[in-house]
Amino acid sequence: MDRARRCLKLYFEPDMTAEDRVAILEAFARALRDFPRWAVSRAFDGWEREQRRRPSPGDIVALTRAALQPVRDELAERQKDLQPPEPPRVRSEAEKAAANEVLRRAGFTPRRMEVLPRKAEGGAPEQAEAHAPRPTHTFRTLDSVGLEVLRAARNANPLVQAARADAARADGPGE
């Protein structure tokens, strides 16, 4: 209450009655009663340093919450350190088989998975891929009706047609 009273005295308002001041101070008291004094004090200090208008209780509450956030973060971090680690997940054979099937369909075989770390280490891509199996499908075989419709719509779009015409003119007739 003392900090609110001192802060409000900084902002001159000649037509404010004593009853109005009491009501404002009570609003501050209700809004700030659940916060620690040090955080409220820090919020008022920040407001007095930075602002040019009289604060509302909501302004000070927001600054108080901001002052408390580092402490809350630290407490959450300490609490997380105290909790036991989550036990490792044990996958059933059915889950493992399903995951392996997805990888196989995507073209990731055990041999290819061995090659990937060598490729990441900086070896030549041709050398790393030499032992990897080649995909048995092309993009054209995976096309759906939806992609054909999309291509047809794109080809019919006047902006796309104009862009293609401009690109053809830019390439020139000799090329």
Helix/strand order: HHHHHHHHHH
Task: Enumerate how many helices there are, as a single number.
Answer: 10
Terminal CA distance: 83 Å
Determine Rg (CA atoms, Å).
34 Å
Instruction: Provide the helix percentage.
Output: over 70%
Mass-distribution shape = flat
Low-confidence regions: none
Structural class: mainly alpha
| Number of E-type strands | 0
Number of domains: 3
Mean pLDDT figure: 79
Give a structural overview.
- This protein is an all-alpha fold and 175 residues long.
- The protein folds into 3 domains: 2-82, no CATH class; 95-136, no CATH class; 137-170.
- The chain has 10 helices and no strands.
- It has helices at 2-9, 18-32, 37-50, 57-82, 93-106, 110-120, 125-129, 139-142, 145-156, 158-171.
- Helix 2 runs parallel beside helix 4 (57-82) and helix 3 crosses helix 4.
- The protein is flat.
Q: What layout of secondary structure does this protein have?
A:
Blueprint: H1 2-9, H2 18-32, H3 37-50, H4 57-82, H5 93-106, H6 110-120, H7 125-129, H8 139-142, H9 145-156, H10 158-171
Quickly describe the structure.
The chain is an all-alpha fold.
Keywords:
about 70% helix, about 180 residues, mainly alpha, 3 domains, about 0% strand, 10 helices
